[in-house]
Amino acid sequence: MLQEQCDRLDPRVRRTRQLLQEAFRKLLDQKRFDDITVQDITEVATLNRATFYAHYQDKFALLGELIRVTFLQLLTQRNVHFDGTCSSAFGAIILGLCDYLLEVQKSHSSDRLQFEPFVEATVIDQIRLVLLEGFRKHPQECRISPEMIAATASWAIYGAVKQWVNTPDRAPAEEFVSEAIQLVKPILTAGSVPVPGHP
Fold first, then answer.
1. What is the largest CA-CA distance in the chain?
2. What is the pLDDT of residue 139?
3. pLDDT digits over 84-130, tens only?
4. Is residue 4 scored above 60 in pLDDT?
5. Mean pLDDT across the chain, nearest whole number?
6. CB of 109 closer than 8 Å to CB of 155
7. How far apart are the C-alpha atoms of 199 and 4, rounded to whole Å?
8. Closest by Cα among 153, 151, 147 to 180
9. Closest CA to 161 of 114, 104, 113, 81
10. Of 15, 109, 110, 166, which is most buried, counting CB atoms within 10 Å of its CB?
11. How large is the average pLDDT for residues 48-73?
12. Radius of gyration over alpha carbons of the chain, in Å?
């Protein structure tokens, strides 16, 4: 769910989900994910189980939402509004992901390694949706579908940032971003039909 969709939710729904997410976040600091029950979450959130299940199928769905919301908040803080072409917005997406993966790496949770594939899949999908939204707002004639370009670029962005995060003596994020843009930007322009009269 993109940030705009979250903002359009009924305020009561948004508040209930925030309570559940905050309760879950607190519990993750105290207990292993496998040991956390829906009952634990609802007790900390001071809500009942029926309310939980009205919003989430299970604790995995809540975890996915927590990952999405946290990542989208970082993008919002960086004022990301990708229009399909803008390098500064593209750079902000990469910096937002740098921030997020560094936070995940610093996490003291014993479940961090267990969560990595879940974090990866969720965040890559959110980047794909942000890119697709930009392509839809500013369509260009391409020989390759926007869906394929967004999917490929989102994996490339995540892979580049993950490599940077795992590099012991890594360059500052701002330096890395310019390299990542050079690596990934050709994917975003792949298949573009040139405008007549321009190289």
1. 66
2. 72
3. 555 667 788 898 899 889 888 776 555 666 778 888 999 999 999 98
4. no
5. 83
6. no
7. 37
8. 153
9. 104
10. 109
11. 91
12. 19
Could you tell me how far CA 134 lies from the centroid of its own chain? 15
Mean pLDDT of 45-55: 94
Q: Which residue has the tokens 């690596």?
A: 183
Q: In the chain, which ranges are continuous DSSP H helix?
A: 3-7, 11-30, 38-45, 49-55, 59-77, 87-106, 112-137, 146-165, 173-189
- Give me the residue spans of the domains in the chain: 1-63, 78-192
Q: Residue 146's CB: how many other CB atoms inside 10 A?
A: 18
What token pair was written down for 84? Answer: 């399909």
Number of Cβ within a 10 Å radius of residue 75? 24
- Count CB neighbours of 23 within 10 A: 21
Residues 104, 54 contacting (CB under 8 angstroms): no
Dist. CA 187–CA 156, nearest whole Å: 9
Give the length of the chain: 199
User: Rounded to whole angstroms, how far apart are CA atoms 38 and 141?
Assistant: 48
Three state DSSP letters for 43-88: HHHCCCHHHHHHHCCCHHHHHHHHHHHHHHHHHHHCCCCCCCCCHH
Give SS3 for 142.
strand
Q: At the topology level of CATH, where does 1-63 sit?
A: Tetracycline Repressor; domain 2 (1.10.357)
